[in-house]
Amino acid sequence: MWKVLIRPVLFLLDAETAHHFTLGLFKWICRIPGCRRLIKVLFALPEQQAVEVFGLKFKNPVGLAAGLDKDGKYLHELYLLGFSHIEIGTVTPRPQTGNPRPRLFRLPKDQALINRMGFNNLGADAMAQRLRSRNKPPDLILGINIGKNKDTPLEQATADYLACFEKLHPYADYFTVNISSPNTPGLRGLQDKAPLNELLGAIMKANKNLAQPKPVLVKLAPDLDDAQLAEAKEIILSHGIDGIIMGNTTLDRSGLRTEPERIEKIGAGGLSGLPLLKKSNERLSALTGLPGKIPVIGVGGIMNGADGRSKLREGAVLVQVYSGFIYEGPGLVRQICAALNRQTDAPG
């Protein structure tokens, strides 16, 4: 139904308009008596082995990547689709509108998206108020993805991350330090040795001084080369970070089926979806193959169960979806979980 009926209608709309319309409609449907129960039945998952990592218990390996629910408005509705964890954000200390529209583009021939959203969000205070007013579902793991405001100089970025971390600490099960979005000028510079050392050192110091420290993850770009990846992993390990997310969107445009003229017209932004699968898997394999053990969440290009399995083969302990969820629909979570079950049950 998603591919034949719903998606073609939604794809008639501007991508960002369709995004907000779909989430708003889903939230409204969930308010109709009996609909929440029906949705849970329709998207019930096969029995799944829980995953224990970062000191947390995930009921299955499949989560929703940051970016789809930037302000944590739809946790209770998205939870019904079977996600073990939902990562909200990226959130910044102060509200910001992000980059001018249009800033989200579909590439249907490639099953891909290009976005240059620019961390549009309502800010850390608004998120804290929303999470305080309504508890998350008890078996849902909540990740909060934090970043800096666009107008904050890079040398002052640490203060922004700390502000988000401290305001939202009571509500997160884990935090993700986003230093890899290509849509905030200079942000990827925080992956370099000196700024990364400063940022992670400050966050882990603040974390250890709290009564209940929370797991901290770092989200890296799939565009890092081997040397950059090795340096980043070494720094991350030295600070006792709990995990890594590999990875974010890519600036690479090679191998796309979409006409070059359209790609040029779209302009800047990070590419996600199916074309990212091979690149993100290669970077995932390189990361897990480097010295030092640390759990990694695999993100990028997961469009079906086989793609989810490929992440685990390359060393991931969990996976997250975003663009695949847009193209394949809400049944994707169940499809991936079923495929992972088949892998677990396979002999040898």
**CATH C-level:** Alpha Beta
Instruction: Using the CA coordinates, give the radius of gyration.
Output: 19 Å
* CATH architecture classification name: Alpha-Beta Barrel
Q: For the record, give the distance between the C-alpha atoms at the N and C termini, rounded to a whole number.
A: 37 Å
Shape: globular
CATH superfamily descriptor: Aldolase class I
Provide the succession of SSEs: HHHEEEHEEEHEHEHEHEHEHEHEHH
Q: Stretches where pLDDT falls below 50 for ≥5 residues?
A: none
List how many beta strands DSSP finds: 13
Could you say what the CATH topology is called?
Answer: TIM Barrel
Largest sheet: 8 strands, parallel, barrel
Structural class label: alpha/beta
In percent terms, what proportion of residues is strand?
15-25%
How many helices in DSSP terms? 13
- Give the mean pLDDT: 96
Physical arrangement of strands within the biggest beta sheet: 3-4-7-8-9-10-12-13
Give the tally of structural domains.
1
User: Can you give the helix content as a percent range?
Assistant: 25-40%
Task: Describe the protein.
With 348 residues, the protein is of the alpha/beta class. It has one domain: TIM Barrel (Alpha-Beta Barrel), CATH 3.20.20.70. Helices cover 40% and strands 16% of the residues. The chain has an 8-stranded parallel beta barrel with strand order 3-4-7-8-9-10-12-13, surrounded by 4 helices. Strands 5-6-11 form a 3-stranded antiparallel beta sheet. β8, α7 and β9 form a beta-alpha-beta unit. α6 runs parallel beside α7 and α7 runs parallel beside α8. The two termini are 37 Å apart. The mean pLDDT is 96.
